[in-house]
Fold:
Amino acid sequence: MQISLVGVGLMGAAMTERLLTLGHDVVVYNRTKAKCEALQQRGAVLARSAVEAIQSSSCTILMLSDAAAIHDAVFAAGKPDFQNRTVIQMGTIAPSESLALGRAIRSGLGDYFEAPVLGSITEARTGRLVVMVGGQAEHVARWNEVLTCFCHESVLVGPIGQAAALKLALNQLLAAQMTAFSVSLGLILHSGIAVETFMTVLRHSSLMASMFERKLPRMLDHDYANPRFSTGNLLKDVRLSLDAAREAKVATPSLDGIRDVFEHAVARDLGDLDYAAVFESVVPQAGHHP
Ligand SMILES: NC(=O)c1ccc[n+]([C@@H]2O[C@H](COP(=O)([O-])OP(=O)(O)OC[C@H]3O[C@@H](n4cnc5c(N)ncnc54)[C@H](OP(=O)(O)O)[C@@H]3O)[C@@H](O)[C@H]2O)c1
Structure:
């Protein structure tokens, strides 16, 4: 089947590779054309604009950074005709932003639902993402062939906005875990305890998260190149989660602190690097320890 994909950053490129591997025809658009070259070599067709990509296929996946990027890419040149087109928004945006996007697309006679994802590049390439649908059961039924390229079975969370809300609830947990693990590692390094002893005890406890194991080598080596998920995008999610928490009247002091740590990391030019780089803000002296 032919599918368009707008936004071939880290995730969009991996998702396009997955669609191509499964034999689909893929039309891609990206603001920075160079990121499309490797995908074109694998058979993807380049659209000149996001609107052209949307009009090329009955179904378009949006995998852009945020709502501002969606606006710039899709709506900056006017209101496109979405007739007989379905847009599946798979990036991480606020519930209210997703609802507004749905209204804009429906007013252009198109169909819309959200399907934000958990997991990263490796899971995207291998079809092991968790895909959370905010929309109607008919959306899942109609577009199951697309959704199951990225997961075994998608999860229908509820109407538009609810999958976006679930994604934010989960990503604030990711940011909290990353900052908390950074604090623990900073204490361990300062005390002179062997990192392997710390990890052995952690592995035997219910506190263990697989993310700790994956990010530890980067933190010890201070190497955050080739990001899986950027510090800047996780800061965006923390800010969106804070908005959601305020609206839900959930106390925010801990999340305020996490936002401050991520803002500090971005101010230190770590925004485009892997989000494990937040360790450098939590433990700025870490490089001085063995
Ligand atoms: N990476 C992950 O592990 C992961 C996992 C789950 C969800 N997500 C979410 O998925 C979305 C994409 O993530 P990513 O990691 O692929 O991010 P990314 O590598 O930073 O890619 C962002 C994409 O948005 C485009 N973009 C940004 N601003 C734009 C603008 N003003 N106009 C047009 N295009 C613009 C970029 O185009 P250029 O190439 O031209 O900059 C690029 O295609 C984000 O919402 C992120 O939070 C990411």
User: Anything to note?
Assistant: The mean pLDDT is 97.
